[in-house]
Design brief:
There is one protein chain. β1 (about 1-5), α1 and β2 form a beta-alpha-beta unit. It is built from five helices and five strands, in the order βαβαβββααα. Strands 2-1-3-5-4 form a five-stranded mixed β-sheet, sandwiched between helices. Helix content is about 30%, strand content about 20%.
């Protein structure tokens, strides 16, 4: 079974959004072990999602944005490899990824660890975390898995 991960660090979403995700999971019959919620606002906005990779290194995990709507069981979204949504609605000059739903099993802490060395720099250089994920994918595809250690440069 999966662990559900949520991030609620801003005033943007009151507690009812977190409660609603849990309600939708239960209503759809989704089986899960635990729900973990990151509430520590270390960075601006979406950048707080990177804390997930610092704290959750075993899995399997399924991350859900607080504004998603679940109408069916979502257990089938769990993946062993780190997986994001394809952002089919975005224009080509933008990354083709979306982080509203993410799944993984194992240690992907390198995303957080590299970012945490110079967070202000990376928050200015990149438009958001999906830009980092997209660059990581391209580098690993070109140079192999070891290239994750040369990300963001």
């Amino acid at each position: 079974m999966i662990d559900i991960l949520l991030v609620n660090t801003e005033d943007k979403y009151p507690q009812i959004y977190t409660d609603n995700i849990i309600y939708m999971l239960d209503r759809t019959g989704t089986k899960y072990n635990n729900v973990h919620i990151i509430t520590d606002e270390q960075y601006d906005g979406v950048w707080n999602k990177l804390q997930l990779f610092r704290d959750f290194k075993k899995g399997p995990y399924l991350y859900l944005d607080l504004d998603v709507c679940l109408t069916k069981n979502v257990e089938h979204l769990q993946r062993k490899e780190f997986t994001l949504l394809t952002a089919w609605w975005r224009t080509k000059h933008h990354t083709p990824l979306n982080s509203s739903i993410m799944s993984w099993e194992g240690d992907y802490s390198f995303y957080y660890n590299i970012f945490a060395t110079k967070p202000d720099y990376y928050m200015i250089k990149y438009k958001g975390i999906v830009t980092i994920f997209n660059q990581a994918y391209e580098k690993m595809r070109e140079h192999g898995p070891w290239s994750k250690y040369m990300l963001f440069e």
